[in-house]
Amino acid sequence: MTLALLAYAATAFAVHLSWSDVLRGVLLPSMPDSSAWILVAAIFGTTISPYLFFWQASQEAEDARAKAKSLSTSEVSAGEERRISLDSWFGMFFSNLIAIFIIITTAATLHIAGITQIDTAAQAAEALRPLAGDFAFALFASGIIGTGLLAVPVLAGSAAYAVSETFGWRAGLGLAPRNAKAFYSVIASAGILGILVHFSPISPMQALLWSAVINGFVAAPL
Questions:
Q1: Which domain holds residue 196?
Q2: Which of 73, 136, 163, 189 is the most buried (most CB within 10 A)?
Q3: Based on the structure, what is the number of domains in the chain?
């Protein structure tokens, strides 16, 4: 499913772009006005996400404890630290590369056409069709679906780890649901709330934006 994110890069190459202008904009960006700085905070909030703070850290600790039963502590530490370091560096590089392509694609299609208000993913995909054709629309749609399938369990799982650790509940995907009822209840509740947002007057895009802004501001103290 992670490969679906390459659809964003493919969309950028499917539309007409002046790559010299793109390179100039990436290397020498213009300073945004005051209202745009909130988007800068949101970008940091999506890069340094709760997934890294809670789920990844907790999952690594669970895996290390499981492997410690058959390996010495020094063997676990040396091998696991190398793997975690490689995993984190590669994951952050890939996610930021995709983020750049998302920004480029949005600028080259929606923004240049004056479309600056998007409330749903479907609306964004439809807006691309007359601008970039059916091929770009299909690529963007596959990217959105792949991102959703990845993001929903990640965000719900991160929330479950965060809440469980706050209240001292048993937590871990290696546990059976009957042994971690509160943990799995948070995952289920987060999924249900996400579905209910779709039927409410709340804009999913605005909800994502402001949750990212909050993440950006609380990252340092966390």
A1: 2-23+44-218
A2: 136
A3: 1
